[in-house]
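Per reviewer request, we include the raw input and output of the structure prediction for the construct analysed in the revised manuscript.
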Amino acid sequence: MKSRRHHKILEIIRQQRIETQEELSGELKKCGFEVTQATVSRDIKELGLVKTPGENNEFYYALPGEKRPPRSKERIKRLFQDAVIGLDASENLIVIKTNPGGAQGVASAIDLAGWYEVIGTVGGDDTILVVVKPKEASGTVLKRFKDLIGE
């Protein structure tokens, strides 16, 4: 039970920013784990989690040495508006067309955004392939991309 809970904690902190033990406890409860604050506190200590600085003087739990750059919505929005010229999707794949030479920067920004639905990108010169999981999240991710370019 403990190892399953530890695995779930690591999954949660990789998918979203958790700032407090209460938030982590709430997420664990959503996943079916009945935990107390004391249990969560011990788990954090046993896993060696640390508080890492984020944007706006916020801190969130992460593994030691795991550096995730702060996500800037304005930066990714600027990149999308400057470089993206088209979007299309099929099943769990999204194709983003950019101006020549723009794909690498946009793909990197998507990777750094840390959206848990995006499991990876492949960026060429003017085309990016975005892989989404689960497939049902493709519409949400596509809408997020469209919002970034102002569609």
